[in-house]
Specification:
2 copies of one chain form a homodimer. The first copy, chain A, is 72% helix and 1% strand. By secondary structure, the first copy, chain A, is mainly α. In chain A, strands 1-2 form a two-stranded antiparallel ribbon. In chain A, helix 4 crosses helix 9 (161-186) and helix 12 (239-247) packs across helix 15. The longest helix of chain A has 31 residues, at 191-221. The interface between A and B is large, with 46 and 46 residues.
Chain lengths: 332, 332
């Protein structure tokens, strides 16, 4: 299992991406350059570029210029969605610094996000064919559609598991999916593996969003009564909350639902103790494991392709992180 | 001079565009389709499509599918910018119905505008080469950059004429310019005319924005003290206001400036009577005429190209509209 050194393997490509992103700042109009720079300089986890570099991986380990450019396109789309998300969530801080919305005001942030989307598509248009543009523009539309569904149903407690799955499939799994599909494509992998990478990316994306929702939920629970978790505070119905609601008695359930609907402080039903007893974290972990199993099984039969071991390593990494959380959520 | 029948000449293309735009609704995710439909169903003036059809005009008068698609791309980008503009301006009504921001809330409107941008670029990616994507994504970034500059300097009364020109060059002239450039290109016109069409579009766009600012300003002045003009209310420094400020005495000037800075009701300096005496409308009309003259002169030497007479007809139409306004502004 690679796990430990996946990130050192892709580091040369990631360094090239840093240089590429810095150079992009110059492409913006001089008057908005410093604002664009602010948005591009986030020290994010760069998950999507990692997927591009891994699925496009060849034994040689050379930095491939086209993969760097593709990673830049997808990361810039992702950063644009973050700029717009933070407006909606009234988020003040992301990754230890002020959000663009807080720094420049929500109005400028709307337009700034737009310029990032445009520039991402502009880079995409420099590939020799229209394929990258076509896929990225369609995926981005799907990401935004997922965000719209989520936004329109805030504080709507009638959401089903199917609704939740549809939203995360669009808002998160979509960019994971095309990162893997196009990474493989541009990296020159064979057609069968490219298709497998597409499915892998989608399931990994779903698993990752469930993990992210669990982090938000458990992270919160530690300081219940002080600050609400972003998702709880903004009335988003996520998987851990759905699991909790299912396990509560009728009265507790109603109390929690009406507190969320009205944006009030949450009742004691959402407490560290109750989570442990009810085993919420382990239930969500099981759903995540299911998705990771699907991601892994998409790779079956493609073991001879260079990226497969790295891709499996990524699923192992996520699984370990979920286990760590789960321990925290049950025995902390 | 064509003027009168320009619009009947392009009507078959415009009808094809209507059908094309309606069909686009199906491309959006089912859950957001009705919202996308709402945004696409605006009964706007369709100026940019008109420019596409006119500059791509051939003697045959046939409806050209690629021109319809190009017009659809540019109109959809324009509609997306309107959705985002209306959030910023807190506009409730546009073209006699509620804005998307008012109808679905500002958060959903941010994302809805994003999906329109994405879909526009997605259509653009269906041309055989990446050229349309490349031009449209770059232009759209420039439009948004212009809007950012305007947004960041609201209620900033230090703006110079050069700043104003730069903003309208980006936020308005840019899409006029590429409508003409790409209309000519996709319409199969010769290279010399295509370049001329580019310059024509830019100057026509600048002239149009000045006209639009004058309409906002004079339209307002009629009901001064009741509702403020959008531009005045949102503290945008436009050409007519700059002309007014230049002609006012020191004290009146300061009163007006501080009222605008603080978003208070405007002093009497902005009244119908004062406009007449000061001749604001005719001064702005002179600037518009200068731009229209530049637009016309870009066409010199290309008289043998089919669109030239129609393009001149468009400048004549705008000039007539400005004269009508000017009469209203001085002798009403």
């Amino acid at each position: 299992m690679y796990s430990g050194n996946i990130f050192s393997l892709v580091r040369p490509s990631m360094n090239a991406l840093d240089i590429f992103m810095q150079a992009q700042v110059e492409q913006f109009e001089p008057e908005i350059r410093s604002m664009a720079k602010y948005c591009l300089e986030t020290s994010g986890k760069r998950l999507r570029p990692t997927l591009v570099f891994i699925t496009g991986w060849q034994e040689s380990g050379h930095v491939v210029g086209d993969l760097v450019r593709l990673a830049g396109v997808i990361e810039m789309v992702h950063l644009a969605t973050l700029v717009h998300d933070d407006i909606m969530d009234h988020a003040e801080i992301r990754r230890n610094r002020r959000t663009a919305s807080r720094e420049f005001g929500p109005d400028a942030a709307v337009l700034l996000g737009d310029t990032l989307f445009c520039q991402a598509l502009h880079i995409a248009s420099h590939f020799p064919t229209t394929e990258v543009c076509r896929m990225v523009s369609e995926s981005t539309r799907r990401v935004c559609a997922g965000e719209i569904m989520q936004t329109m149903r805030r504080r709507d407690m009638e959401i089903t598991l199917a609704d939740y799955q549809r939203v995360i499939d669009l808002k998160t799994a979509e960019l994971f999916r095309i990162s893997c599909l196009m990474g493989a494509m541009i990296g020159g992998q064979n057609a069968g593996f490219t298709e497998a990478a597409n499915d892998f990316g989608r399931h990994l994306g779903i698993a990752y969003q469930m993990y992210d929702d669990l982090v938000d939920f458990l992270g919160e629970e530690k300081s219940v009564g002080k600050t609400l978790g972003t998702d709880l505070a903004t009335g988003k119905l996520t998987l851990p909350l759905m699991c909790l609601l299912e396990k509560l008695s009728g009265q507790e359930r109603n109390e929690l639902l009406s507190a969320m609907r009205e944006g009030r402080d949450l009742p004691l039903a959402v407490s560290v103790e109750r989570m442990k007893v009810l085993g919420i974290a382990s239930e969500v972990a099981r759903s995540i494991d299911d998705e990771l199993a699907k991601a892994r099984s998409a790779l079956t039969g493609h073991e001879s392709c260079a990226p497969v071991e790295l891709m499996r390593g990524l699923t192992d990494l996520l699984q370990t992180q979920v286990q760590d959380l789960n321990v925290k959520g049950t025995d902390d």
